[in-house]
Amino acid sequence: MGDQEARPADTSPPAAIELSNINKSFGPVQANADVDLTVGTGSVHGIVGENGAGKSTLMSILYGFYEADSGEIRVDGRATRIASSEDAIKAGIGMVHQHFMLIDTFTVLENIVLGAESGALLGDSLDAARDRLEALEKEYGLFVDLDATTGEIPVGEQQRVEILKALYRGARILILDEPTAVLTPQETEQLFRILAALKSENVTVILITHKLREIMAVTDNVSVMRNGRMVAHRRTAETSKEELAELMVGRKLRADMDKAAAHPGASMLKAENLTLKGAGAVPLLDDLSFEVRAGEIVGIAGVSGNGQSELLDVLSGIRAIDAGRIEVNGRHVGPDTPADPSEIRAVSVNHVPEDRHRLGLITRFSARESSILGYQRSPSYNNGLGLLAQAKIRRECARLMEDFDVRPRLPEIKSANMSGGNQQKLILAREIDKAPSVLLVGQPTRGIDIGAIEFVHRQLLELRDAGCAILMVSVELDEIMSLSDRILVMFGGRIVAQVDGKEADVKTLGLMMANAHGQAAGAAKVRAT
Question: What is the pLDDT of residues 429-472, one digit of tens each?
Fold first, then answer.
């Protein structure tokens, strides 16, 4: 061996995932450009970036939704071609999507076994799966009633079902896409404990989230993407939220919004004893009363599914109430005097819906067409001959795209070909730009990157300061606490608490959202005006 010293053999395990020079284009748009990523076995690795940064495309390549144009994937040190989700599952990769892939009417056990049956007889498959799942539950602290109907269990337990489903299929590498988007703070803490248990058993977790607080709390390493490229890798213990935010957007972000004190004026929106019944006469809204005044933001906090969506629907004219009364901008609405969405818009009440695909835009439409959706009959968009003024609409759409940083700035692009965050920004631009007297806004920054969140929050505060009455529904407690002058908490279709925005804290709101506060304090009925 001459002068060379013998080197000890490297006995460390190979990385769970190695992506090398990954490239992916969609027509002229390069979504991933020469991306490299290494994820250590048994670690929790965060991936952050703005909308359109390429992180979702990269994970879609890893899970087999797309195949890379070029580059190499190595799983546990072995070069692996992943051309489908079936290939990913065979390679030991599982993915839990932001929107759960569960059938509400099936039991938990049936959902987990679906697609992975062990034989021709379903009963035999279910019996064989039960023992294995009970062992997995104990191993990772993922306890859930296997015989419960999935649609009837809390959302946090539904997420556990998705994780169990992936582990049951043999996943050793787990991709979690925005896993805390619909969880209470307490459910988020439980998820973090589950991630710690997974890590202790050498399961590798890749966490996609826009919540930098969670990145700092739970990850070992974090990678930052911008404009389709990987721009930084950091050990989490050696970075900060501020550095990660700057790496994501390429500039420094303001630490605060200089939020001025609100000066509420006249009541612009008043609801009295609102009742809305669902199937089997089950109340979706149960005797709700509150008001929103000019120049204030009233935030609605609550776990998804407690009546917030139905409240926005009835206030915007999408659904008619069964009992009660709404007074908005001088218009009275009740069971005998309904108002459709166009009539609500006519009294200067604009609506940013929670579900942008179902209610906010038509994905087949161009951005230009989506930018006037709901206002297409306005004289300002017509040429007086019964035809749309296309050139003017195109110019207006281009202006909105510029003012609200909607990318790409192409009025003719199909709405379906825009990222979710840019679809959301287009809808916000359409509704905010008209300077309404009342703005109903559901999940204003859902799917929006950290730089755009700052911009949207500024727009909402400027609207408030100009005298707009804003009712905001959000599952983001940081957003609720940051923007709201008053916070109403909903549980089971009722308002169970009211908190001054300056006095709110995450722990107390989380307990109220679970109705623990109301049960303890006997505060199930709170006057919310």
Answer: 999 999 999 999 999 987 677 777 888 899 999 999 999 999 99
| Per-residue model confidence (pLDDT) at position 5 | 53
Please state the pTM of the whole predicted model: 0.70
Neighbours of 27 (CB within 10 A): 6
Whether residue 239 is found in the same domain as residue 385 = no
Cβ atoms 67, 61 nearer than 8 A: yes
Q: Which long-range contacts (CB under 8 A, 24 or more apart) does 394-397 make?
A: 394/368, 396/371, 396/372, 397/367, 397/368, 397/371, 397/372
pLDDT band at 85 (very low <50, low <70, confident <90, very high): very high
Q: How far is CA 499 from CA 382, 463, 505, in A?
A: 45, 22, 10
SS3 33: strand
For residue 115, being part of any structural domain is answered with: yes
Report whether 41 contacts 91 (CB < 8 A): no
Does the pLDDT value for residue 140 go beyond 90?
no
Question: Do residues 46 and 221 lie in contact, with contact meaning Cβ atoms separated by under 8 Å?
Answer: yes
For residues 54 and 88, membership in a common domain is answered with: yes
- Shared-domain flag, residues 426 and 456: no
Beta bridge partners of 300: 473, 488
Output DSSP code: residue 440.
E
Let me know if residue 8 belongs to a domain: no
The parent domain of residue 405 ranges over: 357-434
Question: What would the mean pLDDT of 480-489 be, rounded to a whole number?
Answer: 96
Pairing, β 70-75 against β 17-26:
antiparallel
| 375 CB-contact burial (10 Å; exposed 0-12 / middle 13-18 / buried 19+) | middle
Nearest to 351 by CA among 441, 423, 485: 441
What lies within 8 Å, CB to CB, of 134 at 6+ separation is 146
Token pair of 485 as six digits: 């002058």
**Do 279 and 194 reside in the same domain of the chain?**
no
Asked if 427 and 441 sit in the same domain, the reply is no
Q: Identify the domain boundary among 402, 434, 466.
A: 434
Residue 299 lies in a domain: yes
At 114, is the secondary structure helix, strand, or coil? coil
Q: Does 485 map to a domain? A: yes
Contacting residues for 283 by C-beta, under 8 A, at least 6 apart: 275, 276, 277, 493
Count of structural domains within the chain: 3
Shared domain for 52 and 157, answered yes or no, is yes
CA atoms within 13 A on the CB side of 272: 10
- Using the 3D structure, point to which of 372, 402, 434 is the last residue of a domain: 434
Segment of 243-252, 307-316, 504-513 carrying the highest mean pLDDT: 307-316
3-state SS, one letter per residue, for 59-92: HHHHCCCCCCCEEEEEECCEECCCCCHHHHHHCC
Same domain, 308 and 427: no
- Domain CATH for 448: 3.40.50.300
Q: In sequence order, what are the beta bridge partners of 57?
A: none
Backbone angles phi, psi at 371, to 5 degrees: -70, -15
